[in-house]
Automatic annotation (TrEMBL):
<protein>
    <submittedName>
        <fullName>Cytochrome P450</fullName>
    </submittedName>
</protein>
<dbReference type="InterPro" id="IPR001128">
    <property type="entry name" value="Cyt_P450"/>
</dbReference>
<dbReference type="GO" id="GO:0004497">
    <property type="term" value="F:monooxygenase activity"/>
</dbReference>
<comment type="similarity">
    <text>Belongs to the cytochrome P450 family.</text>
</comment>
<keyword id="KW-0503">Monooxygenase</keyword>
<dbReference type="GO" id="GO:0020037">
    <property type="term" value="F:heme binding"/>
</dbReference>
<keyword id="KW-0349">Heme</keyword>
<dbReference type="Pfam" id="PF00067">
    <property type="entry name" value="p450"/>
</dbReference>
<dbReference type="InterPro" id="IPR002397">
    <property type="entry name" value="Cyt_P450_B"/>
</dbReference>
<dbReference type="GO" id="GO:0005506">
    <property type="term" value="F:iron ion binding"/>
</dbReference>
<dbReference type="InterPro" id="IPR017972">
    <property type="entry name" value="Cyt_P450_CS"/>
</dbReference>
<keyword id="KW-0479">Metal-binding</keyword>
<keyword id="KW-0560">Oxidoreductase</keyword>
<dbReference type="InterPro" id="IPR036396">
    <property type="entry name" value="Cyt_P450_sf"/>
</dbReference>
<dbReference type="GO" id="GO:0016705">
    <property type="term" value="F:oxidoreductase activity, acting on paired donors, with incorporation or reduction of molecular oxygen"/>
</dbReference>
<keyword id="KW-0408">Iron</keyword>
Amino acid sequence: MNAPFRLDATGSDLHGEIRELRARGPVVRVELPGGVPAWAVTRHDLLRYLLTDPRVAKDPAHWELLASGGVPEGWPLVNFVAPAGMITADGGDHRRLRALVSQAFTPRRIACMRPHTEATVRSLLDGLAGHPSAEPVDLRLHYAYPLAMRTIGTLLGVPPARHDEFRALSASLTSSATGPDEVVATRRRMLALLAGLVAEKRARPGEDITSDLIAAREDGDRLSEEELIGTLLLMLVAGHGTTLNLVTNAVRALLTHPAQLALAVSGERPWSAVTEEVLRWDSPVGHFPMRYATEDIPLGGEVIRRGDAILASYAAAGRDPSHYGPTADDFDLGRAPVRHLTFGHGAHFCVGAALARQEAEVALPSLFARFPHLSLATDPASLSPLPSFISNSVRTLPVLLGS
């Protein structure tokens, strides 16, 4: 048996690493930080199948290594395993939690957020317009981040004064290269901030999802305090990070593929096609932890044993040539519409998918209409990736706004 493939915790070359994984096979034994073993599924169709397989669970009670005490203290991925809430629930418990969350996270509420998103985008572009056109500006920090954070912050009722702290904590939580002391301190601080937010909304409810989740009922049931905070943690980290990475990755992709940018700007291809192709080609999430086998699962020539952990390798599925053909590695807005797995599949499909799409499809055309001569201010190869194999993007995106 081959030794496990050690994933690079710093995410220095996610797509290059995925090519190596794919060369090893459709289902690969990998080693996570701390020597923790897991399986990575590199094929689109196999991952899609696994995401709805009843022999696969999200509840960490099924993880043999965790139950035996084999997960190190301060493990950097603990925040994807520990929170109580939809992300770690299965079956009837998951349906109960999702029903409660759905009462607050409705399509109508997302649609009503569009004017807020449009106003935020106009304000941010006005701010960028005051920047000297010949001096680089970090578009991730000054455009993608405030858009994502203000949107999810408004939805959850997070005071603007706390946005930057939540952003810093979210970045730490999604890093796979964080040290044990920082993991413990970050988790403690994030949970304390969310508990404080819940206490404030109990005392003074507002027109926000946190207040609605506190009040939500399903057959007389409510979210427990632990479930409420776990759900808010998921919404804050995923709702902010996914859009931040999506917008950043989209701008980078378009600026490095001028012919594709021209198709979008001219209207030959819709901006929705840009969003979907970026989600496929450069997923905001690389490998998402964790799922667990509840019995032995033969898959792709391997056997995932009962109690083993599984990564959903969305970035691998997005460029799988067995599903997307020989041009899977190409960024191509003319590609025939295909379904990707970036927002998951099945019962755990991302509740915020429509919001992320809406934000991107407002932010991208507005940016390129306002700054038609936008260009990268550095060699694309010099852009530094986020230190994570979970969150997939770059640390900064320096651009020149143009005259």
